[in-house]
Amino acid sequence: MTLPTHQAFSDNLGSGFQVQVSHELHETLVLRSISDLGVSPASTPTHPKEQFSLIFEAENANYYPQQIYGFDHPVIGQFDLFIVPIGPDNVSKNMCYQAIFN
């Protein structure tokens, strides 16, 4: 499975992703920010390796543990992603999660 690129996420900043948090439950996480972490030392001209961080915000304060979840987006498609809870947003108090690509 190929993960989406920095550009694919950038093109969909602010949109919702359906995340399967259990067999019966899906949660919507909204992509709130993307941080560029520079070029990986393992990157080569023929095989560039992007490093970036994503912050997703849930639509509520529900907490889900760090692990791999199935994501689904109408434009990007389906992929699995390891996310880590980083605490609630200061304003909305909704739970936020981070994924790092390195």
TrEMBL record:
Q: Which residue intervals define the domain DUF6916 in the entry?
A: 5-101
Q: Which domain of life is it from?
A: Bacteria
InterPro entries with a match to the protein in the record = DUF6916
Q: What is this protein called?
A: DUF6916 domain-containing protein
